[in-house]
Automatic annotation (TrEMBL):
<dbReference type="InterPro" id="IPR018931">
    <property type="entry name" value="DUF2520"/>
</dbReference>
<dbReference type="InterPro" id="IPR008927">
    <property type="entry name" value="6-PGluconate_DH-like_C_sf"/>
</dbReference>
<feature type="domain" description="DUF2520">
    <location>
        <begin position="126"/>
        <end position="250"/>
    </location>
</feature>
<dbReference type="InterPro" id="IPR036291">
    <property type="entry name" value="NAD(P)-bd_dom_sf"/>
</dbReference>
<dbReference type="InterPro" id="IPR037108">
    <property type="entry name" value="TM1727-like_C_sf"/>
</dbReference>
<feature type="domain" description="Pyrroline-5-carboxylate reductase catalytic N-terminal">
    <location>
        <begin position="3"/>
        <end position="90"/>
    </location>
</feature>
<dbReference type="Pfam" id="PF03807">
    <property type="entry name" value="F420_oxidored"/>
</dbReference>
<dbReference type="Pfam" id="PF10728">
    <property type="entry name" value="DUF2520"/>
</dbReference>
<dbReference type="InterPro" id="IPR028939">
    <property type="entry name" value="P5C_Rdtase_cat_N"/>
</dbReference>
<protein>
    <submittedName>
        <fullName>Putative short-subunit dehydrogenase-like oxidoreductase (DUF2520 family)</fullName>
    </submittedName>
</protein>
Length: 257
């Protein structure tokens, strides 16, 4: 039985707790034995109090310690762990493996997904990117990851940084564009609901086409009249700058084809 401890209680930690508990219920050889949280109440709805601690010095002995805290706190938490030569990993997409304290064996256990508290996800479909300093530790990480996900990848720190930047474009920036679209609708008394099928189809197309093949719109067609009409319509200077920047980027990408 592989014993796992999760250090943290935020979005990622809470989804990992649920995923490992589901795995245990399915009869895997992975056991979540403890969770560290400064505020025990924040995870008390997920597991029994006897499996929660708010004292790093009271951490149970385990095969794997997963630090699932904010990026800024990873280094400090790893330096406070009261043991040596155990496998300690973090879950960040942008923090390198070597930020972890030298007292323990290092690794990364990065689930690439956007997480929201109290919104369930199908963890089996979430890619988990793994990195470790040696092959033996990687084998253990691989076993643990495959107990909760069907999509497990060996990704080094530089590749993970690239993935994280790409994910910001694909997820965070795209969601911000949704917000802009919603505000434009609200300002003009148009239901945002009308755009939701378009949002869904845009995402679905990427499942069968490359982004390059799926690109449509006035910038792709070099429809100057429509572009100028849109720019004249946009009274918000920030929205206009974004519109011009993205239009230019699409057009310049088209020239490379």
């Amino acid at each position: 039985m592989v014993k796992v401890v999760i250090i943290g209680s935020g979005n990622v930690a809470q989804h990992l707790i649920a995923a490992f508990q589901n795995a245990q219920n399915s009869g895997t050889e992975i056991e979540l034995i403890q969770v560290y949280s400064r505020q025990t109440a924040s995870v008390s709805h997920l597991l029994n109090l006897e499996h929660i601690t708010n004292d790093l010095n009271a951490l149970a002995e385990a095969d794997l310690y997963i630090i699932a805290v904010s990026d800024d706190a990873i280094e400090a938490i790893s330096s406070q762990l009261p043991f040596k030569n155990r496998l300690v990993v973090h879950t960040s997409g942008s923090v390198p493996l070597n930020i972890l304290n030298e007292d323990n064996r290092k690794g990364v256990f990065y689930p690439l997904q956007t997480f929201t508290k109290n919104k369930p996800v199908d963890f089996k479909m979430i890619p988990i990117c793994l990195e470790s300093e040696n092959a033996t530790d990687y084998q253990l990480l691989d076993k643990v990851a495959k107990s909760i996900s069907e999509k497990v990848f060996a990704i080094n720190s530089e590749q993970r940084k690239a993935l994280h930047v790409a994910a910001v474009f694909i997820n965070n920036f795209t969601n911000h564009l949704y917000q802009i679209g919603q505000e434009i609708c609200q300002e003009n008394q148009v239901p945002f609901e009308i755009l939701k099928p378009l949002i869904a189809e845009t995402a679905n197309k990427i499942m069968v086409l490359s982004p390059e093949e799926a690109q449509t719109g006035p910038a792709k067609r070099n429809d100057t009249a429509t572009i100028e009409a849109h720019e004249a319509f946009l009274a918000n200077d920030d929205y206009l700058k974004i519109y011009k920047t993205l239009t230019q980027s699409i057009q310049e990408n088209g020239k490379k084809l």
